[in-house]
Design goal:
The protein has 2 domains: 173 residues, Aspartate Aminotransferase, domain 1 (Alpha-Beta Complex); 243 residues, Type I PLP-dependent aspartate aminotransferase-like (Major domain) (Aspartate Aminotransferase, domain 2), CATH 3.40.640.10. The protein is 39% helix and 14% strand. Helix 2 runs antiparallel to helix 11. The two termini are 23 Å apart. The protein binds ligand KE4. Ligand KE4 binds next to helix 4 and helix 5.
């Protein structure tokens, strides 16, 4: 990057590790220097040098209505005039909680927190407390935030940076996390038979190894195995919630987890996440029960207002419209790659999608890693040069918003077709 973006990043690198507030933003997975964003509106973002992009990262998932939707801005304006934080119960928390439970009735009770990491770390604390077991079972390439127990063969930025685990996580703690390949029920069963597992935690559709869909038998199989071995089943829906279906993965796959974690969309771009599920489990959380978890800004009124506005606007009809556009984009990309004879596989679930430069479909992180990551890097930059912003990593999912029009999809397909040609070896 040149111009003002470069100037700002020079200063940022002196202030922040890698010049960023979160590792995946640093373009380490694709090379080069990130642009500095100036503003967003609808499906578009502009960098500080005035370049415009059609955005398919959407703040890594939260912006299901697109950038700066008027309904959210109005809600924020009205709310902030009454104060920005209280640390006292507000009716806004109840309103957002009721909107979530109405769409996800298996979430009988929930607690708001401020990040997906807080949600997942709290969910496994509940699971360990109620089962009196310590071991957590996760899947290779899944990312559940940066709490110590999850930084074991994780996806997202951990995979992007090639960090198999993270220094600073005590071996004794890492040993309490066992890892199976996604879509592999046999390995999962073996681990459950040889460890007292408190909980299985899974991204029902993996968005942190690139996009990987579950085999039809996988999630029902996890439910049956969890029941058989006395472990809880946790759906980490921080990314899939309100994206893979109007009611999330539980609705799409008809499998009911014991606990669910949410984030991203439920805050509409402000810091909101939540964990919840069976009432008997959640009533173990302080102050109702002994499992302690707390947060100064949990249930923050501004964040609640943004979430209420977002979920209120996201009707079943709007969800279906975004999902249809996502499917058209993915099919169009498949056709572009096929016309050019490029090994390419792409998939979508609702408004979440992804692709790999590999001929065969991807069913696990190990398979994702055999895709042509170098080709992805060239394609990413060719797309960026043509005004399409994709996730700067081969191991991330992409998203579509209500603000992406049919014309945006047509324009995107033209630009990405040109990027495929330009990025040919
Ligand atoms: P946060 O702590 O970043 O709010 O949420 C952690 C998390 C938990 N579970 C799932 C399934 C997630 O996808 C995430 C966070 N996702 C990444 C991107 N894949 C956030 C982007 C980043 O790390 O900067």
């Amino acid at each position: 990057m040149t111009g003002r973006s470069h100037e700002v990043m020079e200063r940022a690198r002196a202030l922040f590790p890698g010049g960023v507030s979160s590792p995946v933003r640093a373009f380490r997975g694709v090379g080069g220097e990130p642009f500095v964003v100036d503003r967003g509106a609808g499906s578009r973002i502009w960098d500080v040098d005035g370049r415009e992009y059609i955005d398919y990262v959407l703040s890594w998932g939260p912006l299901v209505l697109g950038h700066a939707p008027p309904i959210v801005l109005d809600a924020l304006e009205q709310t902030m005039a009454r104060g920005t934080s209280f640390g006292i119960p507000t009716a806004l928390e109840v309103e957002l909680g009721e909107l979530i439970v109405a769409r996800m009735p298996h979430v009988e009770m929930l607690r708001f927190v401020s990040s997906g990491t807080e949600a997942t770390m709290s969910a496994i604390r509940v699971a360990r407390a109620v089962t009196h077991r310590d071991v957590i079972l996760k899947f290779d390439g899944c990312y559940h935030g940066h709490a110590d127990s999850f930084l074991v063969r994780a996806g997202s930025g951990v995979a992007t940076l090639g960090l198999p685990n993270s220094p600073g996580v005590p071996d004794a703690l890492a040993a309490l996390t066992v890892v199976a390949p996604f879509n592999d029920l046999s390995s999962t069963e073996s681990l459950l038979a040889s460890h007292d597992v408190a909980a299985i935690i899974v991204e029902p559709v993996v968005g942190n190894s690139g996009f990987i869909a579950p085999d039809p038998a996988f999630l029902p199989g996890l439910r049956a195995l969890a029941d058989r071995f006395g472990a809880l089943l946790i759906f980490d829906e921080v990314m899939t919630g309100f994206r893979v279906a109007y009611g999330g993965a539980r609705e799409r796959f008809d499998v009911v987890p014991d606990l669910t974690t949410l984030g991203k969309v439920i805050g509409g771009g402000l810091p909101v996440a939540a964990y919840g599920g069976r009432r008997d489990l959640m009533e173990c959380v302080a102050p109702a029960g002994p499992v302690y978890q707390a947060g100064t800004l949990s249930g923050n009124p501004l964040a609640m207002a943004a979430g209420i506005a977002t979920l209120t606007a996201l009707t079943p009809a709007l969800h279906d419209r975004i999902a249809a556009r996502t499917a058209r984009l993915v099919q169009g990309l498949r056709e572009c790659a096929a016309r050019r004879g490029i090994p390419f596989t792409a998939d979508a679930a609702g408004s979440m999608w992804g692709f790999f430069f590999r001929a065969e479909p991807v069913r696990s992180f190990a398979e994702a890693k055999t895709s042509d990551v170098e080709r992805f890097r060239r394609f990413f930059h060719a797309a960026l040069e043509r005004g399409v912003y994709l996730a700067p990593s081969a191991f991330e999912a992409a998203f579509v918003s209500a603000a992406h029009s049919d014309a945006d999809v047509d324009e995107t397909l033209d630009r990405l077709d040109a990027a495929l040609e330009a990025s040919d070896a």
